[in-house]
Amino acid sequence: MIKLHHIIESQQFNRHFLEKELFPLAKEMEKIAKQGGSDILSGKKMFTLFYEPSTRTRASFEIAMSLLGGKVVFSTENARQFSSAAKGETIEDTIKILNDYLPDVIVLRYDEQGGAKRAAEISRAPIINAGDGAGQHPTQALLDLYTIQKEINKIAGTSIAMVGDLANGRTVRSLSYLYVKFPEVKIYFISSESAKMKDDIKDYLKKHNVWFEERNDLREIASKVDIIYQTRTQKERGALLEEHEKTESFCIVNQEVLDLMKKDAIIMHPLPRVDEISPEVDFDPRAAYFRQAENGLYVRMALLKMILL
Ligand code: CP
Fold it and tell me: Which of 86, 95, 203, 272 has the most crowded Cβ, counting Cβ within 10 A?
């Protein structure tokens, strides 16, 4: 089994790792979780340091550690306010000090792009990037790919519509890097003019000869794709996105979109969902977003085993 250290960005993983290492181990972890857990990480200590709010990522990492017999011995859910960051301490100093308290792994959500990389540069303990501002969220992308494989039994040759606030969302950035490790995939970026995918990702796709197209109306392509990956407007990133809000009705997943979709397509969303997926969609079997969040637990259990054993 591969030994992992820091998890900072999606580009560090390849197709072999996903298909031959991570996906089989995540499947095994699902069985372990449903049987009540194990003690393979007994004696291992996790610190979780979150500068931005989280439900899924923090809960699933902490529960994953507990299910494998390890302990979460330090946890802060609002480090910007309740750690010495409030007094002006840098992330580098915080990580340096926390290392002296002997963690085996640190799960870090930082509120600026590049925060996890800065932390990894000075940390002896492995750093897991649980989201860094509008940068990346690599463990989300890993669980997203696992979900696609589990739900539609293939990734190569599929087509995806990434929808919503693509300018400010980190999950679509990490997913773009990882999805294109698979051959013959197609990406539609669907957003308003003010929320378009940033050039660095589009340049990466062009460099790797990946087919992509930009549109502003989900209804035009809903019948063509295997996956609709919806995202919310990232209001906390400070962008007003007035134009985006005026046109976002073209990007909502609702009954009209369900009626257009292929019968075996799926709808994903990293969550939290606000109003960009109508509640009636939850009752359609193609709504995979709650199953996707559940998969996060199994994928994070697998990652912790790869890092800590
Ligand atoms: N998908 C995700 O990162 O959710 P949380 O912000 O709740 O962790």
Answer: 95
Centre of ligand 1 to C-alpha 107, Å, is 13
What pTM was computed for the model?
0.96
Tell me the two tokens of residue 133. 């501002």
Q: Determine the Cα–Cα distance for residues 80 and 89; give it in Å rounded to an integer.
A: 10
Residue 193 DSSP SS3 = helix
Q: Is the CB of 54 under 6 A from ligand 1?
A: yes
SS3 60: helix
Does the active-site annotation cover 137? yes
CA distance 129 to 11: 13
Distance CA 303, CA 139 (A): 9
147 pocket-lining for ligand 1 (C-beta < 6 Å):
no
Quick check: helix, strand or coil at residue 73?
Answer: strand
Residue 239, pLDDT above cutoff 60: no
Mean pLDDT of the chain: 95
Give the phi and the psi of residue 204 in degrees, each rounded to 5: -60, -45
3-state secondary structure of 48: strand
The answer to whether 158 is a known catalytic residue is no
* CA–CA distance, 190 with 211 (Å, rounded to integer): 14
Identify the DSSP state of 197: P
pLDDT of residue 193: 87
Q: Where do the domains of the chain lie, and which CATH numbers do they carry? A: 10-136+296-308 (3.40.50.1370), 138-292 (3.40.50.1370)
* pLDDT of 104 above 80: yes
Q: How far apart are CA 166 and CA 130, in angstroms?
A: 18
pLDDT digits (tens, 9 = 90+) for 140-157: 999 999 999 999 999 999
Angle between helical axes of 56-67 and 289-308 (0-180°, round to 10): 50
| Ligand 1 pocket residue status of 172, Cβ below 6 Å | no
